[in-house]
Amino acid sequence: MAVAAAEPADVGAPAAHAGLIGLSRPELAQVVRGLGERERTVPLRARQLWHWLYHRGVTDPALMTTLPVALRERLAERYRIARPVVVDDQASVDGTRKWLLRFADGREVETVYIPEPARGALCISTQVGCSLSCSFCHTGTMPLVRNLGADEILAQVMVARDALGEWPTPSGARQLSHIVVMGMGEPLLNFAQTARALRIAMDADGLAFARRRITLSTSGIVPKIEACGRELGVSLAISLHAVRDELRDQLVPINRKWNIAALLEACRAYARQCDRAITFEYVMLDGLNDADADARELVRLIRGIPAKVNLIPFNPWPGAPYRCAPPERIAAFAAIVSRAGYPAPVRTPRGSDILAACGQLKTASERRRRASIAA
Ligand code: SAH
Ligand code: SF4
Predict the structure, then answer these.
(1) Full-model pTM
(2) Which among 115, 313, 324, 362 is most buried, taking Cβ atoms within 10 Å?
């Protein structure tokens, strides 16, 4: 299987954009300076602009009433704040929502909002496709098309905020309270753009997501895990899925490059570095990784790491070579892990009627497009 593409370097390049979204605070100051603002007022104007973009969610400079009219006009002439096109907006019977977004170059990604009684999480994508070919993941059957830019990663959050009517950023309870970087793509193979986007998402005068409310999921790009802790300090989820290298090599081929021992060492260090529990994700595959012995081995492997284990029932897709483990097997597995002192919730599949569950993203829209071309 092709693991050569999985170098820790970022792959591909974001599409060219002349937008304001995704720029850092110093870069926004540079924009304002370039539009002729006097040096003395540049910091104030940059702060105000930031506030309009990320706290108020305004997309038209004409509405930025604290900025001088001339500056608003020059912004409108030279810069874009527009959101990507929302090509499709679907709602599941369980309240899950899915948006298909189209970017300037015509590439598309899907973003999923998952409401729960006391919180709401947005599952965002970081790449169009994925280079890693995990054998149980439908996204992995698509080639990597390109990385998303920071603007395109942030746009997913901002479109969701638009749709939920959550501007300005609420100070209290929010419908959109958490971000999970668990959509299409491997975020640590697009780390620079992902980090840029998440730093903006965490800014207190803006989207204001606390770092503990952001979870980044990785298949195990070990050399980038330390940088993720140092630069972002967000919650980390690891797609473990197997407790023996032989099986993990098949399920998550990047394991051939960074094996379970190396991955767990990086997790130990991350937990210390960020003083944070690690979430291990474990997809339940019938007869492959779901035995009691696997659960016991899992507990042995993660001993000493503050952790929780998310058990994910496998979501089947056409042609998938696996079946989901039966519910009683999942329950027995969960019981062993939780008896050892680790929370082991079983993730309820959400939004499967609109093809929004794990591993179903984008492929659905591709299938629809292929069907319409064939018609
Ligand atoms: N590339 C990152 C993040 C995106 S995948 C990663 O692999 O962690 C998000 C989660 O969905 C991962 O834990 C992944 O293993 C899981 N997943 C993928 N396909 C799935 C499927 N068909 N059923 C259940 N979970 C799946
Ligand atoms: Fe890529 Fe994650 Fe799917 Fe593996 S599970 S193919 S890393 S998106």
Answers:
(1) 0.92
(2) 362
